[in-house]
Write a structure and sequence with these properties.
The chain is mainly β. The protein has a single domain, classed as hypothetical protein yedk fold (Alpha-Beta Complex). 13% of the residues lie in helices and 34% in strands. It has helices at 11-18, 102-107, 167-173, 186-189, 197-200, 208-211; strands at residues 5-7, 21-22, 31-34, 39-46, 63-71, 89-91, 109-122, 128-150, 153-164, 176-178, 213-216. Strands 1, 2, 3, 4, 5, 6, 7, 8, 9, 10 and 11 form an eleven-stranded mixed β-sheet that branches. It is globular.
């Protein structure tokens, strides 16, 4: 599961990192507590905008853009956007066959830049302890995007793919994790290179757990209104029951 993450990069930084056109400068500020229904940056292919890539074998016009989308996929057939509150994650095991996800998986895949993600571990005495999973330079999640329109209302939305947790340390916190893509698979995930379903859904590189730092952080991240770099800083002290409602 991935229900909270951080992205402190600017639009210009992401445009440079992914060799994409920046469409979000002036509309995006770094966030350390991104939750479902919030708008966040995605890297996707656009038919009318963006930078074409040397690896692009699709023959389509346009190219990569850094865009803002709402977290929680809203399919074109949805009567209203509220369905997105339940569709912020897509399981790697079923994404290619699910009614809601199979079409965007086939043609609207996205990269989701992140500094890292949060997960909560249940404590024996009650409550939960949040951890931040991160590495230098950040991570990139495999995602899907959709365009929804009804009357005058329209939006871009996205979902983050998840897979089984890798290794004992990850599993001790949560049994699932975001599907973290290595750079060599970015082009294929965006549809710029030919790749079969098995290759696209191969999962993170086996060595990923050795690259990730699991950092115990303060429980302030449990409130979606809290924001700031202090949320990702490591905390010391014994774990104890959380005082947050539902935590």
């Amino acid at each position: 599961m991935c229900g909270r993450y951080a992205n402190s990069k600017s639009g210009g930084d992401m445009a440079a990192l992914f060799d994409a056109e920046d469409l979000i400068t002036g509309a995006w500020e770094p966030r350390f507590n991104i939750a479902p229904t919030a708008s966040a940056p995605v890297v996707r292919r656009s038919k009318s905008r963006g930078k074409a890539q040397p690896s692009d074998e699709s023959g389509a016009a346009g190219g990569r853009v850094v865009d803002l989308a709402r977290w929680g996929l809203v399919p074109p057939w949805a009567s209203d956007p509220s369905i997105g509150t339940r569709m912020f994650n897509a399981r790697i095991e079923t994404v290619a066959t699910s009614k809601a996800y199979r079409r965007p998986f086939a043609s609207r895949r996205a990269l989701i830049p992140a500094d890292g993600w949060y997960e909560w571990r249940k404590l024996p005495g009650g409550g939960k302890q949040p951890y931040f999973f991160t590495r230098p330079g950040g991570v990139v999640f495999a995602g899907l995007w959709e365009s929804w329109k009804q009357g005058e209302a329209s939006m871009l939305s996205f979902t983050v793919l998840t897979c089984p947790a890798m290794g004992e340390a990850f599993e001790a916190v949560h049994d699932r994790m975001p599907y973290v893509l290595p750079p060599e698979r970015f082009a294929a995930w965006l549809g710029e290179e030919d790749a079969g379903e098995d290759e696209l859904l191969a999962g993170p590189n086996p060595g990923l757990p050795k690259e990730i730092e699991l950092r115990k952080v303060g429980r302030a991240v449990g409130r979606t209104g809290n924001e700031g770099p202090e949320l990702v800083r490591a905390v010391d002290g014994d774990e104890g029951p959380s005082t947050l409602p539902g935590m």
